[in-house]
Every structure is written in C-alpha cells, then in structure tokens.
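Lecture 7, part B: from sequences to assemblies.

Below are the input chains for today's worked example.
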Amino acid sequence: MIGAGFVKIETEFPAFSPFFLWRVFHKALVLLSLLRSCGLSQAFKGLREDSHIYRCALVRMSMSCELSGLTGRLPACFKLKTATEPSHGPNSARHWRRKFLFLLLILVALGSICFLSRFHGRTSRVKNKTPNSCKGKAQILLQEFNISGNHLHALASLFSTSDQLISLHCTKELGPKMLLSDGITCALRLPCSEVEAFHKQHRWIAENDEHRDQCPVQDECITRKVGMPMLDDHSVPFISPSKISTTPANHQNEMLSETLAFFEKEYCVSFCTFVKASWLLLVVAVSCKMSGLLLKLWRNQRKKVINQPPVAQQQQQQKQQQQVHSPPKAGKWRKKLLLVFVLLGIAMSIWLFWYLNEEIVLRREETLANMCDERARMLQDQFNVSKNHVQALAILVSTFHHRKHPSAIDQKTFGEYTERTAFERPLTSGVAYALKVLHSEREQFENLHGWVIKKMETEDQTLVQDCIPENLDPAPVQDEYAPVIFSQETVSHIVSIDMMSGKEDRENILRARATGKGVLTSPFKLLKSNHLGVILTFAVYDTDLPSDATPEQRVEATLGYMGASYDVPSLVEKLLHQLASKQMILVNVYDSTNASSPINMYGTEITDTGLLHISNLDFGDPLRKHEMHCRFKQKPPLPWTAINASAGLLVITLLVEHIFYAAISRIEKVEDDYCKMEELKVRAEAADVAKSQFLATVSHEIRTPMNGVLGMLQMLMDTDLDANQLDFAQTAHNSGKDLISLINEVLDRAKIESGRLELEAVPFDIRAGLDNVLSLLSGKSKEKGIELAVYVSNQVPEVIIGDPGRFRQIITNLVGNSIKFTNDKGHIFVSVHLADEVLGAPNNMDEVLRQGLSFVQDNYDKPCNSLSGIPVVERWKSWEHFKKLSSRNSMEEPEMIRLLVTVEDTGVGIPLEAQSRIFTPFMQADSSTSRTYGGTGIGLSICKCLVDLMGGEIGFVSEPGIGSTFSFTGPFRKGEKTSLDATWQQYGPAVLEFQGLRALVIDNRAIRAEVTRYYLQRLGITADIAFSLKSACSYPSSACNTRVSTNLAMVLIEKDAWDKETALLFFHSVKDHMRKITKEVPINRPKIFLLATDISPTECSELKSAAFVDNVLIKPFRLSALVACFQEALGSGMKRKVNRKKASDLGNLLREKRILVVDDIAVNRKVAEGCLAKCGAIVTCVESGKAALAMLNPPHNFDACFMDLQMPEMDGFEATRQIRCVECKVNEKIASGEASIEMFGNVAHWHTPILAMTADVIEASIEECMKCGMDDYVAKPFELGELYSTLARFFENG
Amino acid sequence: MLGLGADRLWADMNRLLALLFHQGVLDEQFVQLQQLQDESSPNFVCEVVTIYFHESEKLLKNLRGLLMEREFSDYKKMGIHLNQFMGSSSSIGAKRVRNVCVAFRAASEQNNRAGCLRALELLEHEYCYLKNKLHELFHIEQQRLLAAGVRYPMQN
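Predicted structure of the full complex, as structure tokens:
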C-alpha cells in the first residue's frame, strides 16, 4: 500500500517534494535491506505488502522466535520436573505396583515350595511307611496268634485222633504250647505286654524252656479238667479273634501315633528346609532391595549434585562431562553385581537340587533297608516257627513211638496227624520219620515191617516223582540205614526208602544227629513240586541228652530222624503276600554258604535297578548261610521335589534378575536422556539468549532507519500538501510510529529476557509520576470519552525508592491496554495502596478501598458505586492469588513497603478461554486476523516481566462484558521526603498558600468524590463531600456554627450532579449564608468550579459567562493545572517565586566550592558549568586532560573535578592516573618531611575527588574508573538529583 | 488544557515541545537543561544550544570531509568526532541525533563506508530538523517573553 501510495504521491506532488519522497523511499529501502539481510523473508514480504502486514510479520517473526525459545525451554523444564520428582504421581504408582508384583511373586514362590515339600512329604511317607510298618506289624501279630491258635487246634485234633487219654506226658510236652495259649489269655488282659512279648519272640522260646519246670504243677490242673479244656479250646478261638481284633486296633493306634510322630519329624525336617530356603530368598530379596535403595540414594545424591545451580558455565560443563562419564561406570558396576547375583542364584539352585536329591536318595535307601530287614526277619521267624513244629513232631514221635511199647503211633496215625496239622507247617511240603537201623538189625526190621529197605534210585530226585517205591531197588548193604517208616500222606511214597542212600540226606542226617539241632540241606529241586527246597532234619534220641553231650554220645543215642522238606519259593511267596507293597520291592533269597557262588533260592532274574540291600537270614543252622537281597522294582523316579524347588529358585532368581536388569537399563536410559536433555537445555538457553540479543540488536538497527523514515514523513507533512497527500503521509507516519513503538516493546522484552535490564533504585514521587502517566494518556481516553482517574492512598509515602521509569511503563501499559479495550463509556481507575491496607480490617481501610471492596457485596441494592457508575468486576479477586501480599517475611525492614496497584476498567473484558495466556508474549485474547483490536500483545508480557523483575506479582480478574481489573504488587523502599523535592518544589509555595482552606465537593459518586478529595488533600485543602446539590444546600447552614464555613474557599461540582435549577438554589443558599457571615467578617465568596471529563468550549464559556462557575476543571486532574487554576480563581495574586529548595540545598552543599570540569565537548562543558553554577559552585572549565593535569598539580584550590572519560590526546583514565600519581608523590614528600605542609597549601593529604562523567554507564567502564583512581561517576546527561547524592558523599563531612 | 487563559504562544511552545518529545527528537535532558535556566542565566538554554550548533556544524563538516576523501580510512578519527557529537547531543537531549550517531558509529566501527554515508545523510537530516525546530522554539519563546514579560517556570 505504501508503494502504491508512493506512486500516487509522485504523480501529484509539487516540484520540491520529490526530494523528500526520494528520502522516504530511500529510508524504506534501507529498512527493507536490513530486514532482508536478517533473512526475515516473512517480514520482508509483509513490509512490501503494507506496513500493517509488515507489523504482523514482525510479530510473527518474533513470535516464532519466542515459540522456539519456549519449546526449547519447555522440555527442559519438563525434564527437570520429572527428574526432581521421581517418587510422585503416576510414576510412583508404577513403582509401587512393581514392588507389589515383586512381593507377590516371592510369596507365590514361597507358597509353592512350601506346598510341594509338604505334599511330597505327606504322600510319600504315607505310601511307603504306613503299609510297611503298621499293616505289616498287625499282620505279623495276627499271624503269630493264628499260629498259636492253630497249635491248640492241632493238639485237639491229636487228642481226637489218638484214643489214648494218657496224655500226661503229652500235655507235659505240650506245655510250651499250652503256655502260649496261657500267654494269649494273658495277652487278652494286657495287650501291651503281649505286644512286647511278641516283639521278643526269640526270648520267648528260651522262656518256654524254663517254663517246662513249672509244667507238672499245671499238669495236675489240666488233668483234673480234662473235659474243660475242650470247652476252653473251643471258646478261646472265638474269644481271641475278637480280642485280637481289638488288640491290633490298639496297636494300630499306637502305630498310627508312631507314624504320626514320624511324619511330624519328617515334616519338621522338610519345614526346616523350607524355612531355610525361604530365609535365603528373603535375604536375597532384602539384599536386592537394599542394593536398590543404595542405588537410589546414590542416584539422588548425584541428582542433588546435578541440581545445584551452576555457578559458572564452565563448571556446569565440567559437571556435565562428569555426568557423561559416570553413568556408564555405574552401569557397568551395577551389571557386574547383577551377574554375580545371577551366578549366585544359579549356584544356589544347583545346590538346592543336590541337597534335596541327596535327601531323597537317602530316604529311599532307608526305606529299602527297612523293608528288606523286615522281610528277612519275618522269613526267619516263619521258618523258625515251622522248625519248632518239626521239632515238636520229632518229640511227639520219640514220645509215642519209642517210649511206648507197643508204639502208639503207626503210619496211619502219623499220616493222619501230620495231614491234619499240615496247616501248622505251611511251608513244609511234607514230613517224614526215618528210623535209625543198623545193618545188623536190618533183617529184623525188614521182617517187622514187611518190606525191604529201598535205596534212593538216583541222585536226581525229580525222577523219583513218578516212581513207585515197589519198583525201587533194595538198598545195598551198608553200616546203617535210615528207612522212612512214617510219612505224611503227601510224601507217602518215600516210606521204606533209605534216607542214608541219598547223598544230601545222608550228610544231613549225620550232621543232625551229631549236633542235635535242626540241620538244613543246600537247596535242591524238591520232589513233585519241582520247586527249590531244603530239607530240615532233626535227630530223635532215646534219652534226654544233656546240652553239652558229645557228638558220639548223640550218635549213640540216636533213634531216628525227623525230616521236613521246605519249599522256599512258596515260603517266601506266601510271606511276601502277607506284606503290602510287595509290588514295589523285588526280593531274592540266596544260599550263600559257598560265598563265591551263591545259590538263588527265590526270585527272578536280577535286573539292576540301582539300589540293593542285603539282609542276613538265620535259619538256625550255623553251617548254612542265607541272604536276602532286596531291590526296588522300578528305577528311582525323577526327584520332582528337588527339581521343582531348584527350578523355582532358578526362575525366581532369573525373574528378579530380569527385573533388576530392566530397572538398571531403564536407569541408564533415563540418565542418558537426562544428560542429553541437560545438554539440550543448555543449548536451548544459549539459543534463547542469542535470540534475545539478536532481537535487541535488530530492533535497535531497525529503529535507526525508522527514525529517518518518520522524520522525513514529518517534514513532508510540514510542507505544503493537499488534503489527500497529507492523508497519505499521515497514514505512513502513523504506521511508522506504531512500528517504532512495537520495536521498542520488543526491545524491552528482549532486554529483559537477555537479562540486560537493570532496575534502578532512585527516589521518586509516585503521585506526580502517576499524574504524568495519566495526562499522557488522557488524550486517548478523552477521544473515547472514558473517564480516567487515579487515587493514591494517603498511607503511601510521598517519596518512594524504586525504578520510576519501569513503574511508569507498567502503569502506562496497563492503562493503555485498558483504554484500548474500553469503548465509549465507563472509566479507568488507577488506585495505589499499601498491600498491608488491603489485608487490614475494613475499618482501617480508606474510603476508596472500602467502597471498592464493599460495593461488591451490596451491589444488588443500588446502582454500582464505581467511578462511572458502570458495574465493574470484583477487584479483590485479582490479587487473591498473590503469595507475597501477606508475607511480611524475614526480609522485613521497616523501610520496605509493598505497593498494590490496581487498574480497573469497564472494557470488553477478556474471554474466559483466553485468560490463561494473557501474560504470554504475543498472545492476545483474540489473535485471529479478523480481530477487533490491534496491537502486538507484548505489553502485558512486558508488564509481567517487569513486575517479576521487581519482585512483585501481577494478576487480574476479568469478566467479558463487564471489564477487567489488573493488579500488581511491587516492593519499594520508603524514601525520605527531602531526598526528592525537585518537582514538588514548584508547588511548594502554592501548597502553603492553599493550606488550611476548605472545599466542598459535590458529586453523586462516592469514589469519584474521593478522588477529587485526594487531589485537594495533596494541596492541603480539606474537602467535604456532598452527594447531591440538594444535600449541599444545607451544608453552609449546617456548618454555620462552626468556624469551618468561614474557610470554605471553593465548591467543586461534578458535571453529572449539575443541573441548573438546583444549582441556582444552591448558589442562593450559599449567597445567603455568605451574606450572613460577611456581616461579621468580610470574606470572599467561595469559588465554584465545575468538574468535567469532557466539555465543549461553548458550553464552558456559556457557563462561565453566566457567572455560575468561576472555572471548569477538566479531568483527569493534574496537580499543576489545579494549582494554576486555583491560583487564578482565588486571585491571590501570589506569583510563584522561583525558589527551588532543592537547588538551594545543592547550593548550600556546593556553594563556593571550586570545581574543575574537564570535557572536550564545548556543549557538555557549558551544560556542566551551568548545572554546577546554579548550585553556587565556582566552575572552571578545561577542555583536555593535559590542561586538567596542569590545573590539578598541587597546590591548587579545587574541591572536586568532573572528568570526561573520552577525550582526544589524553582521556579521562590517563589524566586521573597521572593526577593521582602526582598527588601520591606530594603526599610522600609531606610525609617524609621533604616538603613542608605550607608548601602545599596546608593540606597534609592531597586527594582531589575526581568524578567520572560518562555517557555509558556500563559496569566495565565503571570498574575501570575506580581502578585508575576515580572516586565516583555521574551519568552524563547531568541530573540534579543524582549529582546531589553523589556529591553529598564528598562534601557532607568535608 | 492548562486553563491558563489564552496564552497562545505559551501553548504553541508547549505544543511544539510536546511534539518534539513525542517524536523522540528531544528527551528529558532538554527539560533538565531548561530547569538550569533561571534569573541568573536567563538565556542559558539558548547559549548552550548555540554552542551545540556551532560545534555540531564543525563536526558535521569534518565528518563529511572525512567521508568524501577518496582513500578514506580514518575511521578512528571519525569515531572520535562521533563520540563528541554524541556526547554533546546527549547533553542537550537531542535524542534522535544521538541515536543516529550511535548507528553511525556502529557503521564506522564496521568500516562500512556506505553505511557511514547513509548515516551521515541521516545525521545531517536529523540535525537540520533539530536545528529548525529549536530555532522555532527559541523564536516562540522570545516572542512569548516579549509578549508576556513574564516567564512561567517550566513544568515537569
């Protein structure tokens, strides 16, 4: 558009204008090239389009910069946050969840181990032990009993078969058996002792022998009750089983308790292992946790180290390097530890497996040994019982056959008896009795029996099976024979066969008769049954031999031989049948008399299943040795318990390891990320700073050519242009001005961001400052018809110390903003209070604050009591979030005050959704292209920056459609009133002049009246308030009695409250009143002023001419305007004297002081001279350093020297250095007495204060000033206040 | 606005000053300068400004001379001149002149001759403008003094 404008202008300009036009164009080009060189194509394009878009482009540019800065910073911030609070929020929740899971895992593992061990223990023990021990024992008991029962039965049958009742001997001989039954009856009563008795079976037999002696006594009893035993015999078997059944039950109970105890013991053992294992796990877990904790601690420490604010960037970098180096180290260390832990875990699980397996194997062996021994013992017992039977038979034969004449036994009797008692010897396949027959007796014997002694045909006995004895050959002639005379029916075929003819039998017979005990053959195939068997042989003697009889005696006494064949396989089979769990175990019985080649008597082929247990069997024949070999049928099952437990441990270890590994790698990753982020953050920050610096530079560079553009445009406008041209130029100028102000704002912000903005602390008058700001902005507000007012609480000190420029900037921004968004009606009200006031009780608040706070509460009752009567937002909300408002904290010095400034408007308000980003730079409530309000949106962000910089807070409250209120606080120091009077001085006399006067303010709005009163109070005028003209009418009369009315000098009437009729009424009342008073004292009529925001000149003059009012006061007030107006109206004629107290102060300080000013620039010299001369100093000016050196060569009479720093030839630094040098020498001379004091003007120590005058107040140059001996500095354009305070330090004490 | 009656000259002067301030031609320092003026030195501002003009013109001439030299190389000297110019400008509060000087100096520090020339042009322009306006101001003030015979103190 500008371009187009230019073209247009060119066509229509008068002759001289091309020059200016060219200049403008040239400037614009400069600007463009500058922008292009910055690479801001957007901005470039924007400027080409038109200046408005150009502005937008710049905004966009800076916005993008800003945004990039923001995004650069954001992740860093975020990162920092997450790093600093690892134990909060969802993160911590996850952490806990993980912990919980870990705990759960351990619990499950422990539980499973526990369950496994218990289950295994219970099942295996129950399986193995219960049948083995309990049932087995019960069966043994039962069997034993049956045997003895059978004995009785057998005896009974004997009695029944043999008709002979002369059984004294028999009973005598059967004593032991009877005693057994006696024992049974005993046992019925005392089962326990019986059980014991059964356990000691061997001893029992021995005891039986002893009991023989007692037999005769019993014999008599029995003979007497011959019939009775029969009955008894019958009853006993009936009673006993039932009793027995109870006994085993008892016994079983005992057994059960025993097994239970055993289980308990086993359980204890397994529980112990379980406890051990769980402890181990617990220890592992705890150690893991501990290590985790340690890690965490260590990390925290490091984090702390990291988080420490960097002192310098170098240090930070160093730290970063450390960070970069340390994590891998730590990670390695951690991983090593983890590896060790894993190895340990694996070793542990292997050990556990080994341990458990060992235990299982041991238990298995034990079980096998138990079972084997038990079987062996039972076999032995059974065998012995049978043996006893056979022996009993032998005794029977000797008794009834040999001692009876004639013999009581024949083949038939024997066969029958043995057949009927066969059940007693279940293991024998048959019994036979052979008689000892010497060769000499052979024929007699043969004749007696009617058959010849036959010879065993072959050695092979299996063939004998189907042989008939009659077919056998008669036995050859021998010394003696042993023909069988009695035999059991089953073996009746061997009757008449000579036993001596068989090799095995012969040996057996010889051995038996020599020893007198039962003798066994080696196993051989039995007749008929074809089973392996052994023959047991007992010798029958004719007399009772002593136990120590020699073999010869025994041979001599031998009458015959009782033989029984045992079927070993069936014996063992039967036995094993009686025992449970036979299917588990494999039994072999060997005859190991010949140790090198044992003969297998029972059992199948040997399959090696690992474990073997050998138990010795004693069958009562010392020459023969038997062994029982036991094996498990199956190979040992896999030790599942051990496998499970160890696998569980391994799994747990690996799981834990995995978790830790994951954690460690996560930690590493996070640390890496942290380092990266840190680096990025540093880079982002650097970029941010660079961006800010760039902005500052660019803004500055843009500003310079823009000044040219504007200047040229201004000049162009001053030339003779027609309306159209002027409009164009005006537009261009306005655009340029907007651009400049924008650039200034950007520059400000950039400065603040790059940290180059420093706040000064100088005393200033806040009220005057606010007046200035408002008068600056009053133009704009008047255009819009907005009422503008300021109020400062009287608790705020007159002079405060702070940065007036920045304070003003904030206010200007806020008020400017408010003006921008307020349309046509309403007000903008700036109020300043102490923060403490707001917090205090409502009673202590001043009127404005109270009303400001209170009208909110009763705003339904009456129309709004705001400045313009338009509703406003509740302003206290804008500071309710301030933190520092209330804290009169430790830094509390009595000097410090905290100001609360609120700017209230009745504008459009900020949309709710935009309120959160209102302080974000370049963000506007409405940033769309079609927005109503222009502007960059940087103002508020600058305000926030500045307030933050001051250490205050800013906040706002806004309601769309009602308005907004911005508040900010800022700390300031109380200033002394005297330290700043320069501006105040102008009004000094005027204030004195108005002191004590009284005024009446008529205003229908309380706050507005308060504002007016505030101004009047500043002038020392006491003001009363009336809310309407009517109520004011009564004021003079009501005040009549008091002296007050006499002082009533002026009446200020708000235009809103003005109406002609009432005004007339009021004037009359005033006049009447005055008339009354003037009778006493001549006094001036109170002056009437009309207060108006906006009034047309005609109206004004009309009012004036009607003599209603003396003058019209335009709001917003300015104190100076008020003073002038009042002075004029009151006509006191007092002219303000030019009397500056401040100057006189400075004058007193500097009066008659001789000051040397050194500056090469004439203007500066002149200004400095003027400035100092005004203060009464005697000023000498020189224009070079050399001249100054000459002037300040002691002795001289200068009291101080102002030295410019930048001078040709010799600059200020050098000059000062030389001056100090000279002074030093002189001082030395005086000190050493080389020169008298008089020589140097009676001054013992020369040190002329030298103050640098410098245009750039940069720290570096200031430092250099101090280095070369200067005492202080003043910023170059002199300012009286500063000059005063600086000089005061040198002259106050001097 | 001030309600001091129809003191047109006074208003004119104020308007002019306000304009100058608004345009950024002058700054606070000028007010300071004005404050230094009192009965003892009634023409203080005028004197100072006259000296300033005198000196500035000399400096401008020097600068132009330096820049117009064919083998121009003495940036250092130019820098000194510019420093002086800057110093004196800031002393009287000629803000815009001073700003241009800053730019000029930056250009000279970079040995940017074209930039220097441009800046010189700008400087001359600014200087002219300032001179014109200040002359106008003094003119009005003289008239005002003559007309009123009274001198109102400056306001802040």
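Note for the exam: Chain A touches chain B through 51 residues (CB under 8 Å). Keep this in mind when comparing with the next example.
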